[in-house]
Design brief:
Cathepsin D, subunit A, domain 1; single chain; 21 strands; about 525 residues; about 25% helix; alpha+beta; 6-stranded mixed barrel; 5-stranded antiparallel beta sheet
Length: about 525
């Protein structure tokens, strides 16, 4: 029954237009009105074409309300722009009398993996083509224990040019689709909160009649959930694989094919008829090039006179500078002598200097009595010095230095000069050790072709955790050859039955021919 027919039926039966009961008139009803527009009629009598409480066809003069009424007969809407800079979220909230739809953004369930420790988490991700960067929440970063680095050359803003009140950090993570083999490594900006729970309210999708053959990227797209990740335009057009398709039961709801599964987006008509507010979210990451260039030049400028005086006073009062002034002098030949800053007094070392001096004199006396031993000692020291020079050359850092983090998979454009040089050094060392050093090794195994294993030959089967005297004995009954015609695997008949083993796990006994 249409809305007009309901109005006609309620008027014919002389029912109250608020509660649809026949025992009183509409002006005497004490119940609330429509849950959509809040006017004095039942929700089942609400229509989007007219906002009058009178039945269709009634004259305007008979149903018009006074000009100073709390409500107006004209459909109106009020917009309010609110920003949550702590979460880089800008929400445009629209309160309207005629909206009965919930707008859905594309979401997907994906697996996020830490590339270092392979820790994995399944999260709900928002796929947004209007965002210039990719984001993940601080809570997800802590769960995966992702390594981060500070970001000093980016300005994150949203709707209304609202800047971020804190500086985000940058981290890298792998994403993996749950429905396909698609995976990628992406750099993310870490925020305290990507956005609020989405959708804001539960959405009824029973009228959409989604095809059973469609595998949704997010089967729970209509249930309010926490959003821990946002994929921007950098990945949006990478994962989308085709054109959007309109649902037969909805004119404005679309299915979008992607490598993560089918994404669903658009307004869902009638899904939130009980609501009178809706939230529209948009996420942007913009960088003011002029402001960033200004910061760059300010960093490169020479310090002012005030800054020089301030920094100079701080340097003079620093303990390192005081130690340098108090314990530094110049010799007559022009050399500077600086005393090492020791945490404790040298007396805590005991009488080690005298012991070392005594051993040195003893070694010199032995060398004077045995010239051959001294010559061998000198040659050894020279060889050790040459090896040390080779190790501490530019090919590799000193052995005493701490190893740096692996930088092979880092984006070189996001590294500073030192890390960029370190990445080049690691790349050179990796290729030098893999392509050159390996060629300098002499291989003594498998230089000559050995006799192949024969059928009926008696062998010993290697067993992990057992001494050789307890290895089982068997006889070869079948051989499996590789593509090169060489036997690789054999079936061996033992006291416990026939087993299959690779030839590198078999020890052949001496055959009759060899004996």
């Amino acid at each position: 029954m249409s809305v007009d027919e309901r109005w006609s039926q309620a008027s014919r039966l002389k029912l109250c237009h608020v509660c649809l009961r026949p025992d009183h008139e509409t002006r005497q009803c004490k119940l609330n009105g429509c849950r959509v527009c809040k006017r004095r009629h039942n929700t089942y009598l609400h229509t989007t074409q007219t906002l009058n409480t009178s039945p269709p066809g009634a004259s305007t003069e008979q149903t018009a309300e006074p000009a100073n009424s709390a409500r107006s007969d004209v459909a109106c809407s009020s917009t309010m722009l609110t920003s949550d800079s702590a979460a880089v979220q800008n929400t445009l909230t629209a309160s309207t009398l005629i909206s009965t739809s919930e707008s859905l953004l594309s979401t997907a369930l994906i697996e996020v993996i830490n590339p270092i420790n392979n820790k994995k988490e399944t999260v709900k991700c928002l796929v947004d083509s209007c965002s210039q960067s990719n984001y993940l929440s601080h809570n997800l970063r802590q769960k995966l224990n992702l390594d981060c680095q500070p970001l000093t050359a980016s300005n994150v803003t949203g709707i209304g040019n609202t800047p971020l009140t804190y500086q985000p950090v940058l981290c890298a993570a792998h994403i993996q689709s749950k429905l396909s083999d698609f995976n990628a490594k992406i750099d993310f900006l870490v925020l305290d909160q990507v956005t609020s729970r989405f959708p804001q309210n539960y959405v009824d999708i029973s009228h959409l009649n989604l095809p059973a053959s469609v595998q949704l990227a997010d089967p729970t797209f209509n249930v309010p959930s926490q959003i821990d990740m946002l994929l921007g335009v950098e990945m949006f057009w990478t994962i989308v694989t085709g054109a959007a398709k309109r649902l037969p039961t909805s004119k404005r709801t679309f299915l979008i094919p992607s490598k993560l599964g089918w994404l669903i987006a658009g307004p869902v008509e009638g899904a939130s008829a009980h609501l009178h507010t809706g939230n529209t979210r948009s996420h942007l990451c913009l960088s003011d090039l002029s402001a960033q260039m200004t910061k760059f030049w300010e960093t490169e400028e020479l310090p002012s006179e005030t800054d020089s005086i301030k920094n100079g006073n701080e340097f003079k009062s620093h303990p390192i500078n005081q130690h340098f002034v108090e314990n530094t002098y110049r010799q007559s030949d022009g050399r500077f002598v600086v005393r090492l800053p020791l945490k404790d007094s040298p007396d805590c070392l005991g009488n080690s200097f005298n012991i070392a001096k005594k051993r040195l004199f003893s070694l010199e006396k032995r060398f004077s009595n045995q010239p051959e031993l001294k010559s061998m000692y000198v040659d050894f020291c020279r060889s050790l010095s040459d090896v040390t020079k080779l190790i501490t050359s530019r090919i590799t850092p000193p052995l005493a230095s701490l190893p740096g983090p692996p930088l092979d998979d880092r984006n070189p454009h996001r590294l500073d000069r030192y890390l960029r040089l370190e990445q080049l050094r690691q790349h050179f060392w990796k290729r030098w050790s893999a392509e050159y050093v390996s060629l300098q090794q002499q291989r003594y195994k498998w230089r000559e072709r050995q006799r192949d294993l024969q059928l009926g030959e008696v062998v010993l089967i290697k067993e992990e955790g057992l001494p050789p005297l307890l290895w089982r004995m068997g006889r070869v009954v079948k051989l499996y050859h590789g593509k090169d015609g060489v036997p690789r695997v054999a079936d061996i008949n033992t006291a416990r039955g026939v087993i299959k083993r690779a030839l590198n796990r078999i020890c052949p006994l001496s055959s009759q021919q060899e004996s």
